[in-house]
Amino acid sequence: MKKLLLLVFLALTLVIALSLTACSRNYNVTANSNQQAEQASTSPSISKQEGTKENVAQTPPSTTVDELVKFPENYADGVLYTTVNRSNIREEIFTSREAVNAVKSGQPIPSGTVITLMDYRDGKLFRYVVMEKHTGWGVEYPPEKRNGEWEFQAFNADKSVNEKEDLNRCFSCHKSAEQKDFVYTFDQMRSVK
Ligand code: HEC
């Protein structure tokens, strides 16, 4: 009889011990998965990746020009390679020394080149027009529109983007200068000192 009681006691202890372990394991499992969920939602690398994917997916190529050609804050550090005077209009055109050197030595205008035209009317700054070239730019355009790897942008005198400007006009007119890498003042760039 004593033996039987002892056995039952042992069995009960075992059951209790087992269920306790099981419980604590369960608890650990939930705690872990909560932690993982938390990490996933707060981890900067993961949310950054998702963010970039979303941005790329939401931005169609046709609306990226604003982001592509930024206002060239440092244009005046480059070379004022030509000035054009026509009735009440005066244009001062700047580019980088690298671009000038490339053109002078018969090399293609390098990727990253910015050309800035300051447009004055009656002696007063009226606007800036800018063209910028980068490897891979322009691929989304049909051949009849594309100006190689150039993009265009028009800025108001206060350096803000002129949203009203139809940039197709820039493409269609500069297309005529295709033989000179779409740059009308290519020869002036080549002959500057
Ligand atoms: C109707 C033709 C025409 C249109 C439209 C036009 N351009 Fe031009 N662009 C020229 C000509 C011609 C020159 C050479 C300077 C001059 O004679 O005024 C020039 C010069 C430039 C230059 C200096 C580099 C070069 O090609 O000589 C830049 C930069 C420029 N244009 C940007 C623009 C931008 C940006 C637009 C659109 C907002 C634009 N252009 C629209 C004809 C045009």
UniProtKB/TrEMBL annotation:
<dbReference type="Pfam" id="PF16694">
    <property type="entry name" value="Cytochrome_P460"/>
</dbReference>
<dbReference type="InterPro" id="IPR038142">
    <property type="entry name" value="Cytochrome_P460_sp"/>
</dbReference>
<feature type="signal peptide">
    <location>
        <begin position="1"/>
        <end position="24"/>
    </location>
</feature>
<feature type="region of interest" description="Disordered">
    <location>
        <begin position="32"/>
        <end position="64"/>
    </location>
</feature>
<feature type="domain" description="Cytochrome P460">
    <location>
        <begin position="80"/>
        <end position="185"/>
    </location>
</feature>
<keyword id="KW-0732">Signal</keyword>
<dbReference type="InterPro" id="IPR032033">
    <property type="entry name" value="Cytochrome_P460"/>
</dbReference>
<protein>
    <recommendedName>
        <fullName>Cytochrome P460 domain-containing protein</fullName>
    </recommendedName>
</protein>
